[in-house]
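Quick one, tokens below. Sequence please?
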């Protein structure tokens, strides 16, 4: 995820930033925000890699534990909200093209993006407070074990934490997922039914819908289902940590959504791949030229030796 997601997201970030500066559109603003949330996750991912390599023991400085998890979970839920917003934009654009075009304003999208960031930051702040500063019955504070991060919880913490996680599941996963399914099913259905739409655009629509739904089902669903299981069992599931590994894949899968959503990203990726191909061919030519030069040098040396003899 880190090796493929970071360069592709940085390239997408630069592309969307240039587009927003020149002529902002609602979908470009949403994609830019989605890219920023992915970059947050990718920057903090090495800390989680160190944790996993250490057998899930937290060997890094203690202050990095809450900080890493705070932005880590922010990225997961911001991704769900912005993917939902992109699906709404696509659906309204084909279902009500004239009305939506007249009322479509970048300022509305920017305001919606700010609301998304505030809502998710507030939710994750609540979880942080519950997990690391929850009060015990005698009025003292409790915290996780120093050698583990985001794993061990006291009974008083679970009483508050498990219902909050269930609310996360309903509000920040089920609601966006349901809206996204509705929008993309109708979006694809309308485009396929229109005879004048080019086949390439229909294929892009299908790719966008499939990539988004795959992201929700594979990356987000297992982690969010652990909230429901934990609430029913009245404990934090031990296998929950493995679902977090799947959630990191969204930073590597989102560039596929960028590709199907924006022709500018398609051109940027195409130019980048073309540049890599040119460098590869140039390197091969140089290596071949060096090999030929070595052969000629050897032949010249042999010829000179024979002439001396």
């Amino acid at each position: 995820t880190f090796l493929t997601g970071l360069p592709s997201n940085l390239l997408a970030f630069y592309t969307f930033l240039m587009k927003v500066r020149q002529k902002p559109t609602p979908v470009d603003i949403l994609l830019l925000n989605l890219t920023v949330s992915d970059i947050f996750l990718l920057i903090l991912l090495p800390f989680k890699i160190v944790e996993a390599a250490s057998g899930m023991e937290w060997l890094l400085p203690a202050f990095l534990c809450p900080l890493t998890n705070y932005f880590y979970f922010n990225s997961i839920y911001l991704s769900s909200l912005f993917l939902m917003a992109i699906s709404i934009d696509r659906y309204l654009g084909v279902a009500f093209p004239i009305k939506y075009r007249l009322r479509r304003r970048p300022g509305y999208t920017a305001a919606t993006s700010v609301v998304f960031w505030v809502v998710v930051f507030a939710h994750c702040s609540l979880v942080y407070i519950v997990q690391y500063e929850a009060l015990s019955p005698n009025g003292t504070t409790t915290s996780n074990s120093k050698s583990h991060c985001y794993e061990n919880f006291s009974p008083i913490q679970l009483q508050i934490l498990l219902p909050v996680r269930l609310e996360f599941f309903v509000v920040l996963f089920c609601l966006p997922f349901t809206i996204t399914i509705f929008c993309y099913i109708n979006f694809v259905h309308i485009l396929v039914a229109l005879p004048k739409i080019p086949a390439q655009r229909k294929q892009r629509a299908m790719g966008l819908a499939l990539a988004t739904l795959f992201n929700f089902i594979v990356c987000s669903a297992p982690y969010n289902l652990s909230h429901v299981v934990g609430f029913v069992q009245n404990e934090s599931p031990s296998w929950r940590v493995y679902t977090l590994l799947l959630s990191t894949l969204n930073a590597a899968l989102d560039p596929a959504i960028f590709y199907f959503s924006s022709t500018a990203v398609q051109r940027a990726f195409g130019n980048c791949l073309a540049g890599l191909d040119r460098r590869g061919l140039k390197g091969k030519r140089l290596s071949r030229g060096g090999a030929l030069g070595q052969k000629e040098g050897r032949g010249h040396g042999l010829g000179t030796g024979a002439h001396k003899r």
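The CA atoms of residues 34 and 79 lie 6 Å apart. The domain at 2-261 is CATH 1.20.1070.10 (Rhopdopsin 7-helix transmembrane proteins).
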